[in-house]
Amino acid sequence: MFYYLLKYVVLGPLLRLLFRPRIEGLEHVPETGAAIVAGNHLSFSDHFLMPAVLKRRITFLAKAEYFTGPGIKGRLTAAFFRSAGQIPVDRSGKEAGQAAIREGLGVLGKGELLGIYPEGTRSHDGRLYKGKVGVAVMALRAGVPVVPCAMIGTFEAQPPGTVVPRLRPVAIRFGEPLDFSRYTGMENEKAVLRAVTDEIMYAILSLSGQEYVDRYAADAKAQAAAAEAARERRFRRLPLS
């Protein structure tokens, strides 16, 4: 109930007013039955913009940190994310990937829409990064289509570290569903999982027009953070005159 209150009364109208999203290809999202919507991830706002424009309810796998904040603020944030259709997933440790897959398959098993960002984290520079194979595992095990989705302009509207979004229009593009039934029974073959994931990422790339980087986003983020820390250390050691 609260999900639809947010979508149609509170958050949805506000997001449409702020971002004035141009929506393309919405007819590609199945009206009934289980399916995965796989998109690029450029902004914190992506979590809410896509659900706001879809006709059906969609459930996302979200990082557990959104649900574990301390104090009243943390509890309110957790309650908000749950009400908005987010499922917490612990992304640390060896079992993190399997836990996400179990949660995702549970959503699909109920005939619902599952939203996932194959990159695994937000892009820190607006480029599209290599997809993780969990999306392929879920698509093959559940036997469901994958609808590629591209968020366009949300990086510029709310770059990393920006709390209040900038008022500017964005676009949300949905592509034709990808059918991977030809790989039925091959969900344990690494080469197949990589091929399926790369096909999904190529479809997203074709919709978004981003520059593609054949590296995982988390690794690129860590390298960029390390380089920035090294620059700061060098700057502090520079003489004042």
UniProtKB/TrEMBL annotation:
CDD domains named among the record's database cross-references: LPLAT_AGPAT-like
Single GO biological process annotation from the record: phosphatidic acid biosynthetic process
Any Pfam family: Acyltransferase
Keyword Acyltransferase: yes
UniProt keyword terms in alphabetical order: Acyltransferase, Transferase
Domain of life: Bacteria
Cited PANTHER family: 1-ACYL-SN-GLYCEROL-3-PHOSPHATE ACYLTRANSFERASE
Protein name, UniProt field: 1-acyl-sn-glycerol-3-phosphate acyltransferase
Biological source species: Streptomyces lasalocidi
Lineage: Bacteria, Bacillati, Actinomycetota, Actinomycetes, Kitasatosporales
